[in-house]
């Protein structure tokens, strides 16, 4: 077979002649202004889908503490060329949560040559690997970003393809203001205080109210501490408190001159993180109030340092706090194994206050964080009562904004990204940008009967 015959056979085998003829006929019919741009788009439909060439990892400095993190980078084979398509440094929840670069060998052995568009297939392979959860989520996120970028899709649109929800809905933001906690200064061991707007408000109005409170607290602390304010990893202001109530008192003092009323314009959310000040004793041991029977619970809490008390006392304290303050939600008010305590607290506060837990616990709603893989996280979210779920950022965020897009797609009633300082501002800004691009979005909680300001005249959606 001579060269001419080989060329003809090659063209016929790959259907080049018929594809070009069809494309040129369509080109003439449509006569687009950008001729070659049109040809690129049309011929790209017949191209082999991009495949995973290699997953690489690099040690980088975290923006939190003096620890190293791993940035994962995906390189794909696109139109016969290697192309670095995405890099990801995911947030983490514990300083001991590390990643080993040696795990990448198993990752590449499993994924090399796979189509980058097949997210669920890649994620199933990742789930089966004996590598750290952080490595699985990092690689899954890098592949998701690669697929989104190569298909020229907005992130939220790409998420919608994997999600069964209908349209975009706006969650209610819970913004962290003051941080104390077990490792902080002062005797109060309760983690932090956050605020949320009147449930059902449009996002931009909500953020405006939250930002006014945040700035007022910041200005007050600067005056008291000679411009020396410390911001915790969650973006809230680190303050020494001896009583949990002091956090609420500080916010009230800061907004005294603002036209904002707790219980009307906004509510408090107390993130107790009770697992941090929880311990166990044998039932019947420990101190009891004078005239009261000994507690049968094995759970003890020292929400004020040095004062270890049973579940009943903590429930009474929280009930009193909710009765006297405009608290709309408690997060991790008890240890997740304290089921009887959650049941008792739910009976006391069920109609007055929402209860949330970061671990699956009866009598409470869920706080959800991304984990394992993107597909696994989406699947788990879809199985929950999303309107009663808080979608939460990692304790130590590193700047990824995918979570903001997921917040609009997921149908979760609340998002808890932290305070407005540092990289967390990127999450809030991303939600604001999408809200403006997509026009007024219905608030998820409007289905609960909370007020929702009527949207202004519809704004046509803009392209991403």
Short description:
The chain has 464 residues and is α/β, with parallel strands linked by helices.
- Major beta-sheet overview: 8 strands, mixed, barrel
Radius of gyration over all CA atoms, rounded: 26 Å
Share of residues in helices? 25-40%
Structural class: alpha/beta
Q: How far from one another are the termini?
A: 52 Å
The overall pLDDT, averaged over residues, is 89
Q: Can you describe what's shown?
A:
- The chain is α/β, with parallel strands linked by helices.
- 36% of the residues lie in helices and 17% in strands.
- The chain contains 14 helices and 15 strands.
- It has helices spanning 3-13, 16-30, 35-44, 104-111, 119-127, 133-150, 155-161, 203-224, 245-254, 311-324, 339-349, 374-382, 402-410, 424-438, and strands spanning 51-61, 68-78, 81-88, 172-179, 192-197, 237-238, 266-271, 278-280, 299-301, 309-310, 327-331, 354-357, 365-368, 390-392, 414-418.
- It has an 8-stranded mixed β-barrel with strand order 4-5-7-11-12-13-14-15, surrounded by 4 helices. A 3-stranded antiparallel beta sheet has the order 1-2-3. Strands 8-9-10 form a 3-stranded antiparallel beta sheet.
- The model is unreliable at 449-460 (pLDDT under 50).
SSE order and pairing:
Blueprint: H1 3-13, H2 16-30, H3 35-44, E1 51-61, E2 68-78, E3 81-88, H4 104-111, H5 119-127, H6 133-150, H7 155-161, E4 172-179, E5 192-197, H8 203-224, E6 237-238, H9 245-254, E7 266-271, E8 278-280, E9 299-301, E10 309-310, H10 311-324, E11 327-331, H11 339-349, E12 354-357, E13 365-368, H12 374-382, E14 390-392, H13 402-410, E15 414-418, H14 424-438
Parallel strand pairs: 4-6, 4-15, 7-11, 11-12, 12-13, 13-14, 14-15
Antiparallel strand pairs: 1-2, 2-3, 4-5, 5-7, 8-9, 9-10
Helix pairs in contact: 2-3, 5-6, 7-13, 8-9, 10-11, 13-14
